[in-house]
Amino acid sequence: VKLWDVSTGKELVMLVGHKFEVSAVAFAPDGKTVATGSQDKTIKLWDPNTGQERATFTGHDSRVAAVAFSPDGWTLATGSWDRTVKLWFAATDEEVSPQKDTRTQK
Questions:
Q1: By the 8 A CB rule, do 8 and 14 touch?
Q2: pTM of the full predicted structure?
Q3: d(C-alpha 64, C-alpha 6), whole Å
Q4: How many Cβ atoms sit within 10 Å of the Cβ of residue 60?
Q5: Diameter of the chain by CA atoms?
């Protein structure tokens, strides 16, 4: 993945680390983190200024097709061809545990 300065047309940084093609990219709301999802079944977080990899998330069983940050930037949602959507704590690369439905049926 290459990041470009749109005003100058110059390449700023290249994000290198996935084993296969990148299929999804998202910037955090504050612009300080880029998330990428790949056909290698991983999600990576990057520093967009340096190109430094910050974290790798694993847990999908197929290619990652979508990545999106929550408006506050604390949570990352990912969608995969394994037919799952996962939520992650962006700061710790831990998956948000699914909560048991404790509602009573009436």
A1: no
A2: 0.87
A3: 27
A4: 22
A5: 61
